[in-house]
Amino acid sequence: MTEERITLTKKDRFSVALRSTILQGSWNYERMQNLGFAYSLMPAIKKLYPKKDDRAQALKRHMEFFNTHPYLASPVLGVTLALEEERANGAAIDDAAIQGVKIGMMGPLAGVGDPVFWFTVRPILGALGASLAMSGNILGPILFFVAWNIIRWAFMWYTQEFGYRAGNEITKDLSGGLLKDITKGASILGMFILAVLVERWVNVKFTLELPSNKLAEGAYINFPKGNVTGSKLQQILSQQADGLSLVKEAPNTLQNNIDLLIPGLMGLLLTFACMWLLKKKVSPIVLIIGLFVIGIVLHVLHIM
Question: Which of 31, 62, 94, 289 is found 20 to 30 A from 102 (Cα to Cα)?
């Protein structure tokens, strides 16, 4: 006798979508949207895993780092629902595959959400509502509120459904290695996105000044002694426009020397150091507080 297949109904998926509207409610510095993501999946996890231990493992699986645009998390939720459904029915889908797909999707989708929602849809609706409100029409703010939430909610629901159907197509080809290929591709893409984010977000700037460098003859302007005539002034301005220095010594800072070596090197080293400490089981909270303290101390000492 074969076990009955557990399938998520539209009602189950709707409960997940409804919970995902407060995805940001428990945002934290350590793992950002992980709590909201796990909270959104709880109705599905309760149905898919009857045993308490399995439910606990599923929730623990989704407590890892997750961060993307709050509305673009919906397609990720949809794909995750499909993967969890297949896993609950016995498919060979491990934790790394599910986490790899999530990481691979969250980076690219985060870059799409901001220009679409924050910089296009909301300004257009806001301008429309404001134009009505400025003429004394009460429908201005009401139109903005209603239209924004209809668009937002419709997008979240239908993209979650799209992700769920796409996830089902992926899991149909488990024997063909499609999931393995997608996981590998998603992991590579995720690492690429994280590397870009490190260069953009992790800024380490030293303000410590080193002994200045004496410039070679011809690299600076030799100012004439005595009165400066009009033609001489024109020559000086021309030399400055050509890039010659006004002084004989160039300022020299620690940051300039590091940037000449490899731009962004210190940010990369700081990231590697944090990763190493995390592998040594150092609490992320301790790391965050430690970085704050070190940053403040080095700033007071005029090193950063």
Answer: 289
pLDDT digits (tens, 9 = 90+) for 41-81: 999 999 999 999 999 999 999 998 888 889 989 999 999 99
End-to-end CA distance of the chain: 69
Please state whether beta strands 209-214 and 249-253 pair in parallel, antiparallel, or not at all (unpaired): antiparallel
* Confidence (pTM): 0.65
Q: Which of 5, 13, 161, 167 is nearest to 83 (CA)?
A: 167
Residue 252 structure tokens: 């020299």
Longest dimension (CA), the chain: 106
Q: How far is CA 274 from the centre of its chain?
A: 17
- Residue 91 burial by Cβ neighbours in a 10 Å radius (0-12, 13-18, 19+): middle
Give CA–CA dist 109/112, Å, rounded.
5
Q: What's the average model confidence in pLDDT over 202-206?
A: 83
CB 254 within 8 A of CB 210: yes
More confident residue, 34 or 213: 34
Amino acid sitting at position 239? Q
Give the distance from CA 265 to its chain's centroid: 20
pLDDT of residue 1: 47
| Residues ≥6 apart with Cβ < 8 Å to 82 | 163, 164, 165, 166, 167, 168, 170, 171
Q: Is 289 exposed, middle or buried (0-12, 13-18, 19+ CB in 10 A)?
A: exposed
> Who's near 131: CB < 8 A, 6+ residues apart?
140
